[in-house]
Each structure stands twice: as structure tokens, then as C-alpha cells.
Specification:
Strand content: 15-25%
Region (Disordered): 1-22
Shape: globular
Radius of gyration: 11 Å
Helix content: 10-25%
Number of helices: 2
Protein name: RING-type domain-containing protein
Biased composition (Basic and acidic residues): 1-14
Amino acid sequence: MSALPEREALHDPGRAPTSAPDRQCLNCAAHNRQGKVSYMGVPCGCPTLCRECAMKMATGGKCRACGELFTSLRRTLGSSH
């Protein structure tokens, strides 16, 4: 992960920080599992992954929400993990 504070959300200047503690992980949903969103892709900022899926995809992947490639993951605001 980067040197930024763990709970700091990366976002576009015109977009509010992302908080998604009650949303379902898009990766889990695709595989009929339950997981609550607590991580987002960088640089896109889409909150899409639970902790378990984020750890599996930590070195990069493709965002299931916007399709952008991400290079790292950040915890979302309000996540309890």
C-alpha cells in the first residue's frame, strides 16, 4: 500500500470522499458470496471490495464498477476492518 494514511480516500477534487460500509462487495456478488465493501481501487476510487477479496487482489486488477485498472487498494472511510 502507499504511504498515505490508511483511512484517507483518494478521489477527484470535485468528488466527495467515498464511504460504503453497507454495500456488498462486487467480487463476492459475482461468486454468490456475501462480503461488505471496505476497500476501493486506486486511482479510480470505486468502493467495490471486501477485505478478503482486497487481499487477494492487492497487487492490481480491474475495477468491477468502472473497468479501470487499479494499481493498489485503499480502505474506505467508515470501514471497520
